[in-house]
Design goal:
Elements: H1 3-18, E1 24-25, E2 30-33, E3 38-42, E4 48-54, E5 65-69, E6 75-79, H2 80-86, E7 88-90, E8 96-100, E9 115-121, H3 122-126, E10 139-141, E11 150-152, E12 158-161, E13 168-173, E14 183-187, E15 189-190, E16 196-201, H4 206-209, E17 212-215, E18 218-222, E19 229-237, E20 247-252, E21 257-262, E22 273-280, E23 289-296, E24 302-309, E25 314-317, E26 323-325, E27 328-336, E28 350-356, E29 370-371
Parallel strand pairs: 1-3, 2-15, 10-12, 20-22
Antiparallel strand pairs: 2-9, 3-8, 4-7, 4-9, 5-6, 5-8, 11-19, 12-18, 13-17, 13-19, 14-16, 14-18, 21-28, 22-27, 23-26, 23-28, 24-25, 24-27, 26-29
Length: about 375
C-alpha cells in the first residue's frame, strides 16, 4: 500500500472519531466530510440547508444518505448523489441528522476529503444570502471552471469549499473596494470543533493578502459591514503536482509584506509542509529584514527554517519564539509533523512573518539573526 493511501486511511480513522461516539449540537455554520462517521447532529435552534461539493471518482455517492428525523421519529432519507445534482438541499422539518456512508470510502481512503458538506442556516439561505452565489447561500466550489468575485456582508459571508487532500487555494481581493471596510478571513467549524480566525484584510494590508495562498478545506470571508461589499473577493483552487502541498510567496525587496505561515490543520501523519519566501531584488534597494514571531506547532514534529541573506550566507534555525534577520533574500520553512499526528491531537504549524524594507544605507557590520 502506498504511503499516501496509508496516510489517508489514518485520516479516515480520525474522521470516524471526530463526531462519532457522542452526538453534537449543531452550531451553524459548520462543515463535514462525507466520510465522517456521524452518529447524530442535533439542530436545536435553526433548520439547515446543506451544500454538497464532490470531486470523488471512486466513491458511489448514491450509497451515502442524509437522514433528517423529527422528534416524533418521522424521517426522510436522501442519497447524496441527488443533493449533488442540485448542489444544495434545505430541510423543512426535523431535529436530528444522520449521515450514513455505508463504508463507501473503505476502498478509497485517499478520497476521504473529496466530498465536502457545508451546513448553513436555512433562514440565512432564504434571507440575506438568497441571491448570492451560483446556488444561493453565497457558497462556492473553489474548483469552479468560471469563478467570479463574490459580495460579502455581516449576515452573508462568502464561503469556498475545496475537495482535496491538499486544499490549496488562492485568494484575490479587489483592493479598491476596501477603502473604508475590512474583510475577516476564517475557517468555519469542522463538526463540533471551533472555528478559526485567520486574519483581517484592511485597505492598508490588502496588497499583502491579495493573491494569498492558503491550505483550507473551507474558507469563509466576511465583514462587519451590514450592507454588501460588492464583488470584492474570489477564491480559486490551485493545482498541485503530485504530493507537493507547499506554498511559495514572492515579494519585491522594496515592499513591506506580512502574513501567516500555516500548515494544513486537517493534515494527518507525517505530511511534510514547506513554505518558501522569495524576495525579488529591486535596483539600488537593499534586501529587507525578516521578522518571524508567534510560533506554534506540535513539538513532536520537526521544524527547520533556512534563511539566506543577500551575501549568500544561509542560517538554519530549528527553535525560536521571535527572530529578526536582516538582509534576507529568501527563506524556506519546513515542518514535518509526527507520524501519529491527527488534527485533534497535534497543533498545526503557525508562524507570523513580516518583511520590513530597509530604509537607510545597507548594514555593513553583521547579518546575524537577532533572537528575542
Amino acid at each position: 500500500m502506498s504511503s499516501s493511501v496509508t496516510v489517508m486511511a489514518a485520516f479516515l480513522l480520525l474522521l470516524s472519531s471526530l463526531v462519532s461516539s457522542t452526538p453534537f449540537r449543531a452550531d451553524l455554520p459548520f462543515f463535514l466530510f462525507a466520510s465522517d462517521k456521524v452518529d447524530a447532529i442535533k439542530f436545536e435552534k435553526e433548520l439547515p440547508c446543506v451544500f454538497v461539493v464532490s470531486t470523488a471518482t471512486k466513491v458511489d455517492l448514491s450509497k451515502i444518505t442524509l437522514e433528517f428525523s423529527g422528534p416524533n421519529g418521522d424521517a426522510s432519507s436522501t442519497p447524496l448523489s441527488d443533493i449533488l445534482r442540485q448542489r444544495v438541499k434545505c430541510f423543512d422539518k426535523g431535529e436530528y441528522l444522520y449521515i450514513n456512508n455505508a463504508g463507501a470510502f473503505d476502498q478509497a481512503p485517499e478520497e476521504a476529503r473529496s466530498v465536502v458538506l457545508y451546513f448553513i442556516s436555512k433562514a440565512k439561505f432564504e434571507g440575506p444570502c438568497k441571491d448570492q452565489g451560483y446556488w444561493q447561500g453565497n457558497v462556492f466550489a473553489s474548483s469552479d471552471a468560471n469563478p467570479k468575485f463574490a459580495s460579502v456582508s455581516a449576515d452573508c459571508p462568502a464561503v469556498y469549499l475545496t475537495t482535496s487532500s491538499c486544499p490549496k487555494v488562492q485568494m484575490e481581493i479587489d483592493v479598491d473596494k476596501l477603502s473604508e471596510s475590512n474583510l475577516l478571513v476564517s475557517s468555519p467549524r469542522w463538526g463540533g470543533q471551533a472555528a478559526t480566525n485567520l486574519f483581517t484584510v484592511s485597505a492598508d494590508s490588502a496588497a499583502t493578502y491579495n493573491d494569498e495562498i492558503l491550505l483550507r478545506s473551507v474558507l469563509m470571508v466576511s465583514t462587519l459591514e451590514e450592507s454588501f461589499i460588492t464583488n470584492v473577493v474570489k477564491v480559486t483552487a490551485v493545482a498541485t503536482a503530485g504530493a507537493d502541498c507547499g506554498i511559495t510567496k514572492k515579494v519585491k525587496s522594496d515592499k513591506a509584506a506580512s502574513g501567516l505561515i500555516q500548515s494544513d490543520p486537517l493534515a494527518t501523519g507525517a505530511s511534510k509542509f514547506t513554505f518558501s519566501l522569495e524576495v525579488d531584488p529591486v535596483k539600488d534597494v537593499s534586501f529587507p529584514d525578516l521578522k518571524l514571531s508567534g510560533v506554534t506547532y506540535d513539538k513532536k514534529g520537526m521544524l527547520e527554517v533556512a534563511i539566506t541573506t543577500g551575501t549568500g550566507k544561509t542560517e538554519t534555525l530549528s527553535s525560536f519564539s521571535l527572530v529578526v534577520v536582516p538582509d534576507v533574500s529568501s527563506a524556506t520553512v519546513t515542518y514535518t509533523p509526527d507520524k501519529d499526528c491527527t488534527p485533534d491531537t497535534c497543533t498545526p504549524l503557525s508562524i507570523s512573518y513580516e518583511l520590513i524594507p530597509f530604509k537607510e544605507s545597507p548594514p555593513t557590520t553583521t547579518t546575524t539573526p537577532r533572537h528575542f
